[in-house]
Amino acid sequence: MRILGLDVGTKTIGIAVSDELGWTAQGIETFRRKEDDPAADINYIVNLANEYKVGSIVVGLPKNMNGTIGPSGVACQQFAENVKEHVECPVILWDERLTTVAAERMLISADVSRKKRKQVIDKMAAVIILQGYLDSKSN
Fold first, then answer.
1. What is the mean pLDDT of the segment spanning 104-119?
2. What CA–CA distance (Å, rounded) separates 14 from 31?
3. Where would I find the H helices in the chain?
4. pLDDT grade, residue 97 (50/70/90)?
5. Rounded distance between C-alpha atoms, residue 133 and residue 95, angstroms
6. CA-wise closest residue to 53 among 14, 19, 94
7. pLDDT single digits (tens) 33-63
């Protein structure tokens, strides 16, 4: 069964999905959040979960380097709780420390332009979050 991976930010949500066997993560898109309608963000994710028939959803949890949770982490926890109220599958929080940095480095090493990096960075971070989760389950 597929797993949906999310990199939730204040303006965008990076979205990735696993293959049927749960071995690899592929980026789907970077969704632009609706500032004036937070329920639309939740509905979009719920619809994606239904479309891909996911068995669980992994939400990246940004922690500080010392392991504490700051304001963005609290916002991601709240987002995950809101999603959990609308789906029948588990919603898992996954430590996402340095995923955006790793995504940026990967895109720079692939010689992706700054403008293009900005468009795909959140999607790549979602792939890294989801792949980290998938790898942990296979070990």
1. 68
2. 6
3. 38-51, 71-84, 99-109, 114-138
4. low
5. 9
6. 19
7. 988 898 999 999 999 999 999 999 999 998 8
pLDDT at residue 119 in the model: 65
| Block residue for tokens 């789906």 | 87
Domain boundaries in the chain? 2-138
CA triple 132-66-77, angle to 5 deg:
60
Q: Is it the case that residue 70 has pLDDT exceeding 90? A: no
Answer whether 16's CB lies under 8 Å from 66's CB.
no
In sign, the C-alpha dihedral spanning 122, 126, 131, 136 is positive
Query: Does domain 2-138 match CATH 3.60.20.10?
Result: no
